[in-house]
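Here we describe the complex-level prediction in full. Unlike the single-chain runs in Section 2.1, the two entities below were treated as one system.
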Amino acid sequence: MSSFGSKQTLRFNPGENTFKNRVNELSGENVDLCFQCGACSSGCPMTQEMDYLPSTIIRMIQLGLEESLESKTIWTCMTCFNCEVRCPRGIDIANVMEALRQLVLRKKYNRVSLDDLTQEELRELPQIAIISNQRKLTA
Amino acid sequence: MTRYTYYPGCTLKTTAKNFEDSTLASSEVLDIELVEPERWNCCGTVHALATDDVMHHLAPIRNMIRVEELKEQDMVDNKKMVTLCAMCYNTLKRANEVFKSDRDKKKKIHDTMYREDIQYSGNVEIVHLLEVLREGGWDEVKSAVKKPLTGLKVAPYYGCLLLRPRGIGIDDTDNPTIMENLIEALGAEVVDFSHKQKCCGSYHTVHMKEAVADLSYNILKQAEDAGANILVTACPLCEYNLGPRQTQIRKQYPSFDSIPVVYFTQLMALAFGLDEEATAFEANKPDPMPLLTEMGLMEKNKNGSNK
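The structure predicted for the assembly as a whole is:
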């Protein structure tokens, strides 16, 4: 039995929500802990480039909406961990975004290609930029 | 002289050579010897966050074997690995934590690296040079200063990976002071500003440079408005997004002029009175020389140009 102060969660379709379960397993997080306070979205520096706010993505997963995989948001997240240090429910949201990206990337999807870059850009960009870009956005 | 294993990472050998040169020269002044292993490999630059991803922890962990080898050969005094790049620091440290806390992953990593002479013990400690300086005491740094950086108004820019996640960062996530302490020890003025922990856009600089320029502009503008005339950073990617990317910023924000961005080790080399090879400012964009000559901290180049 839960007592006051323990982490109570909302449970959407328990047991049947396979999409949510996959995301939870791959991220190591429990998205049901989210109560939509919006702290992650308010601290996120990239929301102007996103179609859904990070907190909306979390709600979509709670509801089992696989459309979250088609959002621009998961590719815009740059894992700066700002959301993670702000979440009062202890959800590592960057891990959740990574899980969503991985679900897509593991079907051999590439979000970006180095072929789009000019020789000059390839020469000037620091290696860490190119390596991390490829690690996060390609299969 | 304390001898540490030094992990440079890929970018310090190329676009951030000025970071390495200034580090090696200024560390020597402080009796810190940085011993680079003969063969180290890329850390992978980002920590693998998916729970089933073990493969991407191999590269960072393999580097820790190099530390244990150096210790066995008595080439270093401890099992600390000193990093400079914020991405290397974060990736290595987090992989080390995974290795130490997850028995299943630890076994898989050991099984995969069976051809290494040493089986990694988990006892290597990943530190950032700033932590080594703090441990030695700011008075040590202060006593090495020959040319106090009077007049320089320095905004410390931490970015993400030196401070987050909580427990991994080198200092308090919300209220860091480590760079401020260093700047003060070097005789410069600290300029506190609102965006010191905001992300610069990181690897999106490759395919979303306009969005990165937006973020970088906000950071630089906030620093300038707070009264800074220079920013310091500890990450070659932050340096790129805040420095060379100012060309892109000016395309989007024509009213923006420019503000120099340098590595903290370059300011150390300057304050310690080291030569131009050590300060290595010629690689920085925009050029910090006009500001530094104006402040009387540098003399104009012999050929008369400030580039």
